[in-house]
Amino acid sequence: MLVKAVSKMWLRARRSAQNMLEDCSAIAATEFAVIVPLMLVMLFGTVEFSSGVAVDRKVTLIARTLSDVTSQAGPSSQNSPYAGVDDNALQNAFTASIAIIQPYAQTPLNLQLSEIYVDSNLVAKIQWSKAAIVGAGATQATLTGSSRSAGDVVTSMIPTALLIRQTYLILSEVKYLYTPLGIGYVMKSNITLSDVAYSRPRQVFCVVYTTPSPNQPQLVNGQCPAT
User: Is residue 4 included in any domain, yes or no?
Assistant: First the structure.
């Protein structure tokens, strides 16, 4: 009798253990609870990173557009070796960046255009420089003071392939403070995205800023300044 009782108890325990092992109703919930936080981090990280890459590409496009548009300025008169740009023309060029940066926030978008002359000694100097900022919701860029001045030596920042004696370059510089979506999930802080672009004047030898400041290089005998 004792043997039979022990045998029955053993069979019951065995069946209970088998039933417990075969019951998978809670495994899916446990796996879900473990995996969901990781999947959410991956989701937000992917969104933040991909948005950052997209904005970075737009910053590059803005830089290229600014230098390209300015370099295409036409001659001020027939057979003239230079083209003239004023505040209105530059403001219009800067304003084009608003359409490019959409649908991302416009602010803070800092823009700068400069012309560089490389002299016969391969020394590159700023001829003129203008800057602008685009604020939130703005429909037009606002001209501001540039961080560069006429006469500044910028030889070290010019790519070697572009250092050609007695030539001009249009330099555009763009900076944008990118705020990640859902900041704090993966990317912990804002990131400053920036880029530069160089173009050579297309239709003329140089592009002259026609509203010069007191230290602005001037045309000499109708020729391009070479300061």
Answer: no
Q: What is the pLDDT of residues 43-97, one digit of tens each?
A: 777 777 788 888 999 999 999 999 999 999 988 777 788 888 999 999 999 999 9
Alpha carbon distance 138, 91 (integer Å): 13
Q: Residue 204 belongs to what domain range?
A: 29-209
Residue 171 sits at φ, ψ, to 5 deg, of -110, 130
38 assigned to some structural domain: yes
Spatial CA neighbour of 93 closest among 121, 72, 79: 72
